[in-house]
Design goal:
single chain; alpha/beta; Luciferase, domain 3; GMP Synthetase, Chain A, domain 3; Non-ribosomal Peptide Synthetase Peptidyl Carrier Protein, Chain A; seven-stranded mixed β-sheet
Length: 578
Amino acid sequence: MPEKTGTVVDLLLERGAAEPDRTAVVLSDGRRISYGELVQRVFETAEQLPGKGLVMSSRIGLWFLEGEWIDYAVGYFAALLNGSVAVVLPTDSDRRGIRRICRDLGIDHVLSAAARPFGSAEVRDVPVAGPATGAGRGGRPVAPLDPARLADVVFTSGSTGTPKGVAASHEALAGIADGYRARSGGAAVVAHGVSHATAVGTRQLLLSAVARGSTLVACVPFEARSFLAAAAAESAATAVLPAAAARSVARALEDDPALRPAGLRTLRFMSDHLPAELHLALAALLPGTRVVNTYGLTEAGDAHLVTTQQDCGLGPGGFPAPGTEVGIMSASGDWLERGEEGYLCIRDRLPALGYLTDPMAAARTWRDGWTVTGDLALIDGTGRVRIKGRSRGLARVGGRTVSVSEVKAALETLPGVEAAAVVVLPHPTLGQSLAAVVEGPADAPAEDVKAALAGVLPAHAVPSPVVRVEQLPRSRTGKPHQDAITALVRRRMSASSRPCRTATEVLVGSVWSGVLELDGAPGADADFFQLGGDSMAAVEVLAELEGRLGVDIPLDLLFTRSSVGELARELDRLRAER
């Protein structure tokens, strides 16, 4: 086994000295940086940071957009080299959430690829600096990096749906890197479509790259054809993608089998369960490539489950990866036997992580080194974990946990909403989706509710559809009748849609039909996500519409204007303002 790493900063510096010309990160548009250049830029950037060598008081925020993986890698390692805590600000959080994070964590400085003040006066007072050049190659931090000190903080929806900062020490990061160094047969080139704001992207991808000297090929924002082309051009042996990207990859390969990267040995999907038929279809489309689906939590470090082609038909779950332990715990905290259903617990050999600002949630999540998940599961006779569902009150939308009660509470704060109910529905690509019924004036536009929610909730937590009623169905005791509410939503979704009338509605319907491979054009009231759309398909739709209409379209527009008619009206407004 390789000698233990001091810190990941030590490992990066060793890598830059040993293989300065090896490519560290390459983007799908061809931009790249070598390990030698990465180390040089890390030093130059660290020289610009305040609080050099401070033991605990310096916390550096990282605010990078999805296409800025090189700048993100520079900022991340510069913060660590500076002796600061690298706080990865979640790019999908609302402005209020970013402001709260900066305040609660006492962030001293924010690194960004450009001096962007978050587009909001709410957080404009947070200092912003871009990576500088020409500052020279400075020294190490004044104080040595103590392995027990905090190294980084990344955010996860965790077990309550509210983003929480999961903190890791330098010891934990080095342990993850050492785990990768100890494994034989690591890929020399890893292609991925993972946003740097995703915890797995933050830790596992960067740490595995410096540990093994791998090249990261980043295709973010994700587009299937570009991703496959980049993987082929760079001879990627391994590819890592969110599960929501799977259908886009399958469609691209079905349309053009020549896109298959010849050297791809492993294709890994994470963040959510991959349906068995899609798992097998991808395996057939990629002969010679091992297709796997992994389940893990930010809170659990490198511990995860693995599903292969052989057991994907058994449903969500999988066998523990090497070094991962699993157990099942009852609601009262007792360990259960095989075959008994309870809460899934998972751990590996690394030190337990922690929440920085929520000690009560931390006490519920970590027990004696185990991470207690929000998943109900059992361990069968073969040792495979079978996940049976989420604990009550949580939904899993596109690989992200959403608190149903928090969505309901957000709805009930809106003007004109007297009461609200949220329904969790199965979804063919997102796993689950949310719909809402709101009590209030029935003639008020439902899209106004979604637009208002977009200001307080992340896009994936905004329900679609939203049904307005004068009074919620209630039981004899006056409580909302959940079965009747669910039936109401389903009737709304299955009701015949009015035909498209305007030219823009016809165009939107045509583009949706092509991207989602529908049998016919959808009607004006059809909902994008209920037709099988997901965030990856949304990127394709908006790119096509931008090209056809000649306007810039915000990426989150489909989450708040998700019917053909709603989107068409908003596109007409954007064209009029052009």
